[in-house]
DNA sequence: TCGGTAATTCAATATTATTGAACAACGGAG
DNA sequence: CTCCGTTGTTCAATAATATTGAATTACCGA
C-alpha cells in the first residue's frame, strides 16, 4: 500500500472529486486516477463509485474510516520526530545514585517535565559502577553519579559536591555539641550504609584514621531507613546534608569539626555521546542549572537548627 | 514517508541488523541501507546507531514504538478489506418499513450478526417512498419495503406477503364472531394509520367498496400505539398479522371473511447495484431465507386464540 | 595489527510514478 | 433529445526513484 495514494484518497473524499484533489495536491488529473486505480487493484475492491455524483462504495467507506486513524497517526509520528529534532520531545533513560535519585531528582524532574510535556524520562537507580556499565551497554543515556574512571569510554562532568554531616539522636549525649569531630564519637555507635554505598569507603577511612576503630558500628542498608534508626536512638550516622534536612523530628544535624568530607557528583555519559544531543541536552542543561550551588556548604539555615 | 522503508526498519529492529533484514526481505544489502538513509533524511534525524553492535538511537526507539501501531493498523486494514472482498466484513446501511423493522428484523439481524461478527448494520426506518429516495441518493444499500415503481432506477424483488387481520377489543360486540367481513363492521368505528402508511390505501379502498363509507374512522399515527387503542375499546383496527400476534391481552384477532387483503414486501435496491455484492449479498440471502414462508396465511396457531 | 563481518557508496539498471493529449461518460440546460 | 461543460479514463512518453552488484570503508574481536 502506498501512503501517497492514501493521502490522495483522503483528499478526494474531503474535496469530493478527483479534479479538486489533483489541483490541491499539484498532480495532473490522470495521476490521481492512476493512484486510486492502483490502490483499488491492490485491495482488489472498488473504493469510489465512478460516474455520476461523487460517492464512496461500501468498501470505500470502511477504508476511509479505518485509514483516517492511520493517516492521523502518521502525522502525529512526523510531528513527534520533528519535536525530537529540536529536543522538545524524547525518551530519556537516565540513571542516578542514591540519595540524588530520592532527594533532589523528584523535584527537578517534576519541574522539567512540566516545562517539556512531550519528553518522557525513566530513572534507573543504582550505584556508580552499575550505571557506568549500563551506559557502556547503551542502556542508559546519562547518569547522575560520582566520577568513574574507565579510560576514555565515559565522559564525566562534575556538577556539585555534597558534604556529610553527623545525624544525632535528639537525646544523645553528643547532641548538645554545636559541631562534632571524629574524636568525639569514639566509643559511640555509628550507623553505616551497606558496603556498595558511595559514602561507605570515605567514612570508613575517616573512622580508621581518626577514631582508631574505637567505634561500634551497625550496618543499615537503606539511607532512608537510616534516619529512623537515628531517631530511635540507635546511634549516630554520617549522611549527606540533603538527607539530613529536612530533618526527622527527634534528630539533629551537626557539621563535622575538622576534616570536611564531601563527595562530588556529576553527569556521566558515553564519551561518544558528548556533547549530548536533543532532549538529553535539554535535560543536562536543566540539571546543571538546578544542581549547581546547593549542597556545597553547611553554612546555610537549613543545617543549623 | 514510505511504507516499504517503514517495514524494512521494523525488520531490521526485530532481526537486529541490516544484513539479516535484507536477506529476509529479499533485498540487496545496499537497498536496505538506501531505504533507511532516505527515511532518516526525511525525518532529519538518525534512527539507527551505526557501527559496533546494533542499536537504536533515542529517536529510533521513539520512532519504532509509535510506528509499530501504524504498521499494525495497516495490517488490520488490509485484513478488513480482504474480509470485505468475500463478504465477511462490511458496513451495510439498510432501510425497512414498519412493522418489519420492529417485528421481524430484530431477531433476524441478531442471528445474522452473530454469524458475521465483522459486519456492521445500520437500519433506517421509514416508509417506502422515503426509503426509495434514500436508495437513489446512495444513502442506503438495500431496503425491506413494498414495491415502488420508479422506472428502471430501482430493482424490487418480492420476498413475502402479509395478510391483514381485524384486531377487535375483547368486549366488543363483534368479538364473538370467528371471522369478520367488511359488511360486519358497518356503523362501527375503524382505527386507521396515518396517510403515508402502506396499508392505508388498501384499507380505504376496501372500506369504500364494501362498507360504502358507513364507517366512522379515527386516525392513529403509530401502528404500535394502535394496539393500545384497540385494547382500550376505541374501535376495530385492520393490521398485519405480525402486529396482531403476539396479542395484547384485551384484544382478539379475526381473519377477514371474503376478500383477502395482503401486502407484498420485498427487497428494494438500486438497479445498478443488483445483483448485490459482498456483505449486502450475504444479508440479502439471509433475509430471503428467513422471511420466506411466514406471514402468508392466517391458518396457523398464533392467529387463532 | 590483522582478518572478518557489517554497512556504505556509487554508477548502472529496472521499476514505477507522473504527465499531457485524446477520449469516454455523465448531468443539466436549452 | 441533443448539446455542452464537467469529470474521470486511457495510453504512450517521460521523469523520477528504487534497486542492484561491485568496490570501498568502518569497526569489532582476536
TrEMBL record, chains A, B:
Q: Which UniProt keywords apply?
A: DNA-binding, Transcription, Transcription regulation
Q: Does the keyword Transcription apply?
A: yes
The record's annotation in Gene3D superfamilies points to: Periplasmic binding protein-like II, Winged helix-like DNA-binding domain superfamily/Winged helix DNA-binding domain
Q: Which InterPro entries match?
A: HTH-type_LysR_regulators, LysR_HTH_N, LysR_subst-bd, WH-like_DNA-bd_sf, WH_DNA-bd_sf
Record-annotated membrane-spanning stretches: none
Q: Does the keyword DNA-binding apply?
A: yes
Q: Where is the HTH lysR-type domain?
A: 1-57
Matching SUPFAM superfamilies: Periplasmic binding protein-like II, Winged helix' DNA-binding domain
**Pfam short name (any one):** HTH_1
Q: State the similarity comment.
A: Belongs to the LysR transcriptional regulatory family.
Protein name (database record): LysR family transcriptional regulator
> Which species does the entry assign this protein to?
Paenibacillus profundus
List the taxonomic lineage.
Bacteria, Bacillati, Bacillota, Bacilli, Bacillales
Amino acid at each position: 500500500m502506498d501512503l501517497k495514494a492514501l493521502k490522495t484518497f483522503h483528499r478526494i473524499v474531503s474535496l469530493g472529486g478527483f479534479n479538486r484533489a489533483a489541483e490541491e495536491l499539484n498532480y495532473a488529473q490522470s495521476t490521481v486516477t492512476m493512484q486510486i486505480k492502483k490502490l483499488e487493484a491492490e485491495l482488489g475492491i472498488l473504493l469510489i463509485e465512478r460516474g455520476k455524483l461523487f460517492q464512496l462504495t461500501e468498501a470505500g467507506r470502511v477504508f476511509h474510516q479505518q485509514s483516517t486513524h492511520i493517516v492521523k497517526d502518521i502525522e502525529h509520528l512526523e510531528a513527534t520526530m520533528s519535536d525530537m529534532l529540536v529536543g522538545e520531545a524524547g525518551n530519556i533513560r537516565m540513571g542516578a545514585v542514591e540519595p540524588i535519585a530520592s532527594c533532589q531528582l523528584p523535584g527537578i524532574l517534576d519541574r522539567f517535565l512540566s516545562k517539556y510535556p512531550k519528553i518522557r524520562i525513566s530513572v534507573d537507580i543504582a550505584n556508580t559502577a552499575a550505571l557506568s556499565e549500563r551506559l557502556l551497554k547503551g542502556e542508559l543515556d546519562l547518569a547522575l553519579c560520582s566520577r568513574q574512571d574507565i579510560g576514555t569510554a565515559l565522559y564525566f562532568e562534575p556538577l556539585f559536591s555534597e558534604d556529610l554531616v553527623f545525624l544525632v539522636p535528639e537525646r544523645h549525649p553528643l547532641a548538645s555539641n554545636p559541631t562534632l569531630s571524629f574524636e568525639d564519637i569514639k566509643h559511640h555507635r555509628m550507623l553505616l550504609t551497606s558496603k556498595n554505598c558511595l559514602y561507605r569507603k570515605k567514612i570508613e577511612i575517616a573512622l580508621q584514621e581518626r577514631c582508631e576503630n574505637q567505634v561500634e558500628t551497625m550496618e543499615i542498608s537503606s539511607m532512608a531507613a537510616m534516619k529512623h534508626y537515628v531517631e530511635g536512638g540507635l546511634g549516630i550516622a554520617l549522611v549527606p546534608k540533603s538527607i539530613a534536612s529536612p530533618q526527622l523530628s527527634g534528630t539533629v544535624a551537626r557539621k563535622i569539626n575538622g576534616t570536611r568530607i564531601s563527595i562530588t557528583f556529576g553527569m556521566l555519559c558515553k564519551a561518544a555521546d558528548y556533547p549530548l544531543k536533543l532532549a538529553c541536552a535539554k535535560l543536562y542543561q536543566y540539571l546543571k542549572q538546578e544542581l549547581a550551588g546547593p549542597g556545597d556548604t553547611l553554612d546555610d539555615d537549613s543545617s543549623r537548627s
